[in-house]
Amino acid sequence: MGAPNVGLDVFFVLIGAILVFAMHGGFAFLEVGTVRQKNQVNALVKIIVDFSISVLAYFFIGYWIAYGTTFFVSAAQLSGDGGVFAPQGFTLVKFFFLATFAAAVPAIISGGIAERARFWPQVVAAGLIVGLIYPFFEGIVWNGNYGIQDWFARTLGAPFHDFAGSVVVHAVGGWLALSAVLRLGPRLGRYGPNGGPFLPSSIPWLALGTWLLCIGWFGFNVMSAQSVEGVTGLVAINSLLAMVGGIFAATIAGKRDPGFVHNGALAGLVAVCAGSNIMHPLGALAVGSVAGLIFVYCFHLVQERFKVDDVLGVWPLHGLCGLWGGVAAGIFGLEALGGLGGVTFLSQLVGSFGGAVFALVAGFALYAIISALTTIRLTDEEQLRGADISIHSIGANPEREF
Amino acid sequence: MGAPNVGLDVFFVLIGAILVFAMHGGFAFLEVGTVRQKNQVNALVKIIVDFSISVLAYFFIGYWIAYGTTFFVSAAQLSGDGGVFAPQGFTLVKFFFLATFAAAVPAIISGGIAERARFWPQVVAAGLIVGLIYPFFEGIVWNGNYGIQDWFARTLGAPFHDFAGSVVVHAVGGWLALSAVLRLGPRLGRYGPNGGPFLPSSIPWLALGTWLLCIGWFGFNVMSAQSVEGVTGLVAINSLLAMVGGIFAATIAGKRDPGFVHNGALAGLVAVCAGSNIMHPLGALAVGSVAGLIFVYCFHLVQERFKVDDVLGVWPLHGLCGLWGGVAAGIFGLEALGGLGGVTFLSQLVGSFGGAVFALVAGFALYAIISALTTIRLTDEEQLRGADISIHSIGANPEREF
Amino acid sequence: MGAPNVGLDVFFVLIGAILVFAMHGGFAFLEVGTVRQKNQVNALVKIIVDFSISVLAYFFIGYWIAYGTTFFVSAAQLSGDGGVFAPQGFTLVKFFFLATFAAAVPAIISGGIAERARFWPQVVAAGLIVGLIYPFFEGIVWNGNYGIQDWFARTLGAPFHDFAGSVVVHAVGGWLALSAVLRLGPRLGRYGPNGGPFLPSSIPWLALGTWLLCIGWFGFNVMSAQSVEGVTGLVAINSLLAMVGGIFAATIAGKRDPGFVHNGALAGLVAVCAGSNIMHPLGALAVGSVAGLIFVYCFHLVQERFKVDDVLGVWPLHGLCGLWGGVAAGIFGLEALGGLGGVTFLSQLVGSFGGAVFALVAGFALYAIISALTTIRLTDEEQLRGADISIHSIGANPEREF
Lengths: 402, 402, 402
Known about the structure:
3 copies of one chain form a homotrimer.
Chain A: H1 6-34, H2 40-67, H3 75-78, H4 90-102, H5 104-112, H6 119-142, H7 148-156, H8 166-184, H9 203-222, H10 233-253, H11 258-272, H12 281-305, H13 314-332, H14 345-373, H15 380-385, H16 387-392, H17 398-401
């Protein structure tokens, strides 16, 4: 990185970080709109507090696990006045950027376990995930830790390619969420003789969440280059076309249902992350369209057939579409299909499923330990009153409610 | 464009594209807040699906019509590895930027035809507009197609100047919308013996839409320079002062009505696009203030006197203020009035009215053809139940409604 | 500033301006969610009209008071074609950036005086504050006017350091608000035999306001460098950690109340502004955590014990946390505490309290004059009907209400 460009790269990565930070607002409002009204406040507080514990866990432990750097030197050294830190605090803004990625994992889980998780156990789980589990896998893929990427290159023909985190962030988040959802069990009254789907409280809030997520996602994907020298418009157009493909496929398959239409956009964006810098735009369009279909067809399957009460459908959305995205980079990234190459199908297949299995196993272990130590589920009475009153002593529209 | 700046320009235009993309969220929520509650979901789905079909139409046809470039080569070539494409995928991010402009045209129309348009015919119209009609005019003005700008320069003293699209985007969108509104007819019960204005469902959502539009608009205007070498703070301050002038004029003329106050901001921004890079800030303030007055005085005139059921007032807002903006660039852009010059009043007058007439004629033809082939209007019964239930089988607040 | 970087700096400061502009949307929605429903429209209109009058007052007078520059020359000169203006209109985009700071002061006050202020007197007050009071102090601190910074450097060991305005913007805004709140008196029915706290209308809108404020705040802080050469990631990470500290402290001290959790984020960000470019991230975490506690403990104290009806708690939030931030820069900015140095505790103490006293005195004078000339308070009957109907002739949900 040439010296004159340092300030520019600080600016570039900062904007990426701000955009991904805005996505967390998106997670919050998507959950607000999808849950029942008596759980809206809880959705909002969970997301912002999970974000906070994530930043702290990543600052004190996680970043060191992934990248081997700690921040316990003077501000002068952190600013790049000699030492291992890049000038103008570039390392610090990179931390900000990557911390917003890390914090996305608890935000994903939050949507799956909505309406019935106790507050503090869930905050502690977020801290452990972002402090230990996520950065362990992140470091393997993005920092070459433990030589596993070298092994992939030697044995499977190429390192595992996950440009912006279809697997590292989304599949890991989605499969961790699955383990959490299974451990918690379904919400009171969701299944059984008098059970049935709970309707979302507000489509406008759901849609606002989606818009914030989509807007921020262009920072998530494009700024993953982490330098202006490395930025490419290919990532931008591929993100756009995958999003559009997801919307369109979900609109048709989902019969114009607003939940499907808006989540279809997210499905396309989840799937395009991994290969967005190596696929042709038409490949991205195909990847996003398939992701939209995956979400629509798996959402009801999971909830109604498997009776897995994944409230926002985060396992299909992040878990399955993320998995698909990782594998798809090994298909549409190939030169034969108009891509830039440098990937193999086998490497993508093994890496993607490896991430999913890792997250599922780690999640089962983590939630088993936490639930052995404390109660992680709201009582039936607390669920009946709603997480808002039970946990936060206030509802979403206090003036009207009292 | 010097090589070291390519990555910087990719970054610059990307941010513009993201900001204009955010404006589409603004279009959605402005419509959500302005329509009746039983049509809120439809507003949301229309905007995001129209955006999607617009991107596809512009990718496959429209961009080629305007600029003569197609994207059907390998990703390596698209990334600028030889060939006609700029390095680091600059051409691709420029496509993203211009696609968000193109998609604004159906978003404008959507607000006019709200609450009574059938879904798919309206989506098809969006595709045809962005694939064929809009880029034909865009290419004439912004790419010099068919030598019409040369003819303007020779005959009227200067090429038609429309820096950020007061006419190309807004007037074209507004006059297309007028033709659509006239073809569709007024909403059930809007006029007649028991008719009367339908009140907006939610001022906060209306305001949120406006804020998103205003925030994104600075990208719409300033990033229209399309390179960091060409950027100028003049566009930024002029956009600011025109917006402020529109707000202030609409607040006074509109007697502090929140719909007028917020739309006044948009009126100022529509009008300033064309001349924002050549006017003095005081000129921009005047242009925006006049636009605010145009909106307030024409809104009721159109709806009550002419009985044209333009739900969000998009013809006054985009059609008339856009027209005014195009003409105003030929007044306040003159050096005699403190501007940078390079424009003539005559050229602006002819170009602006030319755009409006083109859009009106093209719109009449398009909607005549579509309505000859299929029904474009919801039945009375469907309107009574609301577009949400009729088209999307769900309302805006499903939990409360069932 | 080297010539090749001018366009880049225009871009950089523009993004800062857009982000701080977005914060004004945040102020609007934070107030919408916190006031009673019958005052939501008034909150929205106040913020956007105050923003407008602020831009005009700062353009015509305020910027000249602070920086000695006026804009009454040709557009060519403004664009940097010779004269005192920087090339590519850099001076103009800097005006935009600083105008969004200036306009934050009335936005802060707005939250304190909510629900009972008459419209136009309050708009006039905003104009006078941004045209005269704020820029007088701003020029002293940020432009070295009247040699007061020199006196600080000579006498107190260092100039008063307020990088991004903990004192210049927030404490000044908060203490002006206190004077306004005291002059207006409490809302009808707030205290007395049947009085009691008025509950907020909507936590989701309150939260949305907070998210917009937090997102934009990274522009407020980081772009205060005003050039890419001067940008540092230290400001970014410090803002992040102070925000997170504020959230966490307020969550615990505030018992998971959503109002405290979200305002805790703002408290941390207010306090970190002054020293964000000189503190260690751990110092920023401490500063933000203390700010979160200040807000939680002072909010009820002010409202219940002192019976000061500061609706959004803007005096604790901006006044006290801003004061704390100014002083804290003289603690955690010291090299002994891992900071970059260049500050003294005494200088920060005197400067911070000086700002608070200046604002309080100026505010008492201003509101005394205005209330001598006109009525500034809504009548009891107007308050009963709500500011929305009384001032704007329409409520927040017109369709439902009629």
